[in-house]
Amino acid sequence: MRGGCRLLPLLLLALLRGPCRGKGVAPGAVTCGSVLKLLNTRHSVRLHSHEVKYGSGSGQQSVTGVEASDDANSYWRIRGKSDGSCQRGTPVKCGQAIRLTHVNTGKNLHTHHFPSPLSNNQEVSAFGDDGEGDDLDIWIVQCSGTHWERDDAVRFKHVGTDVFLSITGEQYGHPIRGQREVHGMTSANHHNYWKAMEGVFIKPSMDPSKHDEL
Q1: Which positions ≥6 away from 141 have C-beta within 8 Å?
Q2: Contact 88/212 with Cβ under 8 angstroms?
Q3: 41: how many CB neighbours lie within 10 A of its CB?
Q4: What DSSP element (H or E) covers 102?
Q5: Which CATH class is domain 31-200?
């Protein structure tokens, strides 16, 4: 593919069915503007959303975990806070505040003080329109080094409610049978580690003038 994976137009992201790692994309830090799947390392499922609303709690778009690695509804775009602090191609720092926007529906990963339907932890939903939601869409990337590296297992801590993005294994029935509940937990533990997987990774730019604000 001429130009490598980083040149794929965003309009084609929903059609991607697996890893997209061209020769021009070297291993390294996850960057702002990248689109990727996130694997929960404890339960081996990917963070997923779809146009299915919760039947309880907030009634917002549900967020789940799925086992399939080729599911097109598991792509999330790395964005900054609404102040434009995350510029395209900039490595994401440990401790940085980000938003995760679901590619197919344009809603942001979100949590709030509603109980999750299966485990009675804190409900995690997808919220907003065309990437714009509210202050409860902001998460802090927790990792051990300077930047979020693709090979690292990281945590996402919610700024507004101090919970960690987690999965503990509860499974839904109809209409999303077999999908796992995603929720927020107050404790940092082995249920809330995530790793970057398949995706389109924006190569870091050495020229700040070529960065596009998200």
Answers
A1: 92, 93, 94, 95, 96, 98, 148, 154, 155, 156
A2: yes
A3: 16
A4: strand 97-102
A5: mainly beta
Interval 13-37: pLDDT, tens: 333 333 333 333 335 899 999 999 9
Amino acid found at 45: V
CB-CB contact of 125 with 110 (8 Å): yes
d(CA 150, CA 30) in angstroms, rounded, equals 6
Q: How far apart (Å, rounded) are the C-alpha atoms in residues 137 and 97?
A: 10
Give the type of residue at 24: G
- Report the candidate in 182, 162, 141 with the shortest Cα–Cα distance to residue 43: 182
| Predicted confidence (pLDDT) per residue in 124-180, tens digit | 999 999 999 999 999 999 999 999 999 999 999 999 999 999 999 999 998 899 999
